[in-house]
Amino acid sequence: MSVIVLVENNGGTIKPKGFEAVQYAAQLAQKMGTTATAVVLGTIAETEMQALGQYGAKRVLHIADERLNNLHARAYTRALVNAAEKENASVVVTLYDLTGRVVAPRVATQLKAGIIAGALSLPDLDKGFVIKKSVFSGKAFGYVNIISNNKVIMLAANTLQVKKGEGAAAVEKLDVAFEAKDFAIVVKEVNKVTGEIPLADAELVVSGGRGLKGPENWGVIEDLARELGAATACSRPVSDADWRPHHEHVGQTGGTIRPNLYIAAGISGAIQHLAGVSGSKTIVVINTDPEAPFFKAANYGVVGDAMQVLPRLTEAVKKFKE
Ligand code: FAD
Fold first, then answer.
1. Could you report the per-residue pLDDT of 149-162, keeping only the tens digit for each?
2. Residues 103-133: pLDDT tens digits?
3. What is the ipTM of this complex?
4. Which of 206, 210, 280, 286 to mutate to test the pocket of ligand 1 (most atoms within 8 A of CB)?
5. Beta bridge partners of 173
6. What is the structure's pLDDT at 16?
7. Alpha-carbon gap, residue 24 to 164, rounded angstroms
8. For labeling, which of 30, 39, 164, 317 is most exposed (least CB within 10 Å)?
């Protein structure tokens, strides 16, 4: 009985959020009296995989087939199921991101496992296998007991404080007999739909709402985002009005994000907006109205005009970087 964790290979490097998944799996394995093995797919250097030992992985199973460089739901599922069988794993951990959402439910079906989407804690093993998750669009927490023998956990980002330690994981090749149908969907081209930094993976996000008055004013959001190396996001009315593309819309009916920093300018903080961003580690709110509800959810608040505050923040970031 062991724990395996899918760690995403982002064009030859480990996706940073993968470190948290490895640490989570390692801590869970320790609680269960076993070890965690990372599973890495596609073309990647051995040193990248060995470094997962610094986050608690004892071993890495590398399935090197280059067709796995792009996400293929069936192939990824077969790879993880094979790895789980090889390791006699009863728990499979993935992130609660695009890949996790596509792959984890399929793996759970094949392993006849119970699954939790968006885990916010390690399991409480004294009570069974009880994991915290947010419910009703972030308005409450639920505690879910997975009672099946096999379990699949999709971990919400920023659940743990990631700490880098010492050690190198032992890397082992795993050959998997894929079938042609595993790659039936052919990826011909990958187009980025957001700016330079994809919103779903962003550690830093600068977001604008109706308070910015119109698309012609979005330069202040983009300038700050560029200086910070952040992605841009927006509230729903902004994308409904076509000021910004729909994939930038966050909230109950848009994307759910959990960045380290979420800067919200000219956004009132309606419950439907908070549903998509309240898991952010640090929230900074800029609003002219001191009574705006968003201030209650903020770690830092600036009462002021976004058109003046944002350029000053951008200048401050520039100076800081000099
Ligand atoms: P407003 O509510 O108009 O707020 C603008 C804010 O800007 C105000 O607080 C104002 O004080 C401030 N402001 C004005 N001028 C300035 C300035 N110069 N500088 C700084 N601040 C300024 N919304 C989402 O965002 N995401 C969702 O997924 C979503 N899903 C929904 C689902 C349903 C079923 C429903 C009913 C609603 C949903 N909404 C969603 C809409 C949500 O209820 C709010 O209407 C919306 O979030 C408000 O957007 P806003 O804060 O940009 O605009």
1. 999 999 998 899 89
2. 999 999 999 999 999 999 999 999 999 999 9
3. 0.99
4. 210
5. 62
6. 86
7. 13
8. 164
Residues 175-231 have pLDDT tens digits of 999 999 999 988 788 776 555 678 887 899 999 999 999 999 999 999 999 999 999
The answer, yes or no, to whether residue 55 has pLDDT greater than 80, is yes
For atom 29 of ligand 1, the residue with the nearest CA is 272
Report helix, strand or coil for 250: strand
Residues near 254 by beta carbon (within 8 Å), at least 6 away in sequence: 236, 239, 246, 276
Bridge partner list, 7: 40
Residue reference for tokens 């009672």: 147
Q: What is the whole-number distance in angstroms between the Cα of residue 19 and the centre of ligand 1?
A: 34
Expressed in angstroms and rounded, the spacing between residue 302 Cα and the centre of ligand 1 is 17
Q: Of 253, 245, 251, 239, whose CA–CA distance to 210 is shortest?
A: 239
Report the distance separating Cα 213 and Cα 266, nearest Å: 9
Q: In terms of DSSP bridges, do strands 114-119 and 261-265 run parallel, antiparallel, or are they unpaired?
A: unpaired
Q: Which residues line ligand 1 (CB under 6 A)?
A: 209-211, 235-238, 251-254, 265-268, 270, 272-273, 276, 286-289, 292, 305-307
Nearest to residue 134, comparing CAs of 22, 276, 19? Answer: 276
Distance 248 CA to ligand 1 centre (A): 14
Residue 126's Cα: distance from chain center in Å? 28
